[in-house]
Design a protein that fits this description.
By secondary structure, chain A is mainly alpha-helical. Chain A has one domain: Ferritin, core subunit, four-helix bundle (Ferritin, Up-down Bundle), CATH 1.20.1260.10. By secondary structure, chain B is of the alpha/beta class. Classes of the chains: A mainly alpha, B alpha/beta.
Chain lengths: 173, 277
Amino acid sequence: MTENPGIASVADLLAHAHAMESEAHERYLDLAEQLELHRNVEVATLFRKLAQIEQLHVRKILDRVGALELPHLSPWEYRWLDDEAPEAASIGEAHYMMTPHHALSLALRAEQRALDFYSSVLEGGGNSSVQELARELAVEEREHVELVKTWLAKYPEPGADWAEDPDPPVYQE
Amino acid sequence: MNTQTVSASAARAYKSDVKPVWCPGCGDFTVLSAITKAFAELGLPPEQVAVVSGIGCSSRIPAYLNTYGFHGVHGRATALATGLKLARPDLTVVVASGDGDGFSIGGNHFLHACRRNVDLTYIVMDNRVYGMTKGQPSPTTEPDWDNALTPGGTGLRAFNPLVIALASGANFIARGFSGDPVGTARLIVEAIETPGFSFVEVLSPCVTFRPDQRDWRNAVRPAPVQPTGDIGAAARRLMTDDGFNLGVLYVGSRTPYQTHRTAAPVSPSEIEQQFAV
């Protein structure tokens, strides 16, 4: 990780953390709703569970914020390392026939991106309070990465034919 | 705590209780999210916003929003929105469409909406296919797209919406990508803030009938040039555009069309009487 997001204050870092966890929560809810609609109950339930976990993380961040006033940031003013909040699972990778293995792989990549973000803040140096908070948040994200890895180990990768639909969408004249 | 950040929950407040029926992985989910983020960023009261659409997958968007909405007639979204904006200039009117609805069935309305330059924001989710009706080529489909319906491709030149928008007089022209939700939200904010007719093409993959479009993520890139207010310069840029440059192409300074109506508003019951038989 070489890029430094340039987080200058604790309030700035908490604003990023709050947005990151909120986006992750909302994204898992969206994914759960999508999969429920397509009767993929197992994966939908998994996404709901992940949404609940992220909701708890949002609350934990809000506890840290306390009475602190966070800065106003437009969506494009966040200094993410990529196109959007790192912990939000990529919606473009969803598939109506995806399995728990795919869902947890998606979640693992999201957690890893969150960890990378805090690691980049740490490596960026600067304000000691920011560094201390980034270190704590990075530790938490590392725990989440390990948790998802343990979870994922229970769901081996499915065969190459996992997306084979006996009644696929058909091009129609 | 005082969080003034445009949080996901602030944006979610613009979503209705109706759940989208798009295919998982569809780009339109992200466009919906970008629209709500843009509304939240602008702090628009939902009752002061109207989202008008035509027909197609993307045109379902008004149902998924907590604003006023009108799911209109195929291809006629810009005409409906024009009428609404002229009658209620106080509202923020956003039009949502797809490439089939907007450029084929509604192609003629598109030209004249650009020409009239009424203060509207027109978001077209372009997936280069008719998804809702199961995979027929649309005006923006590549001529060599080979599939069961058009073996070897249509051989027809693809419609270039940015060229048409520029030539027809749109006052703001941009292209976004659903895989870049933050960038798309920013384009929508700028489009709404720019007076006149704003056109935003959003490349939005159809993962069901155009699974090849998942690779668009690797094809798009920020346009290497800044927006211009010079039509000639914008036209020259489009000559070398491969359809994957993202960002604002053109911001003009034309005065939006307004009716400057002075007569008192007519009540719905008075209008009803005119049509009574």
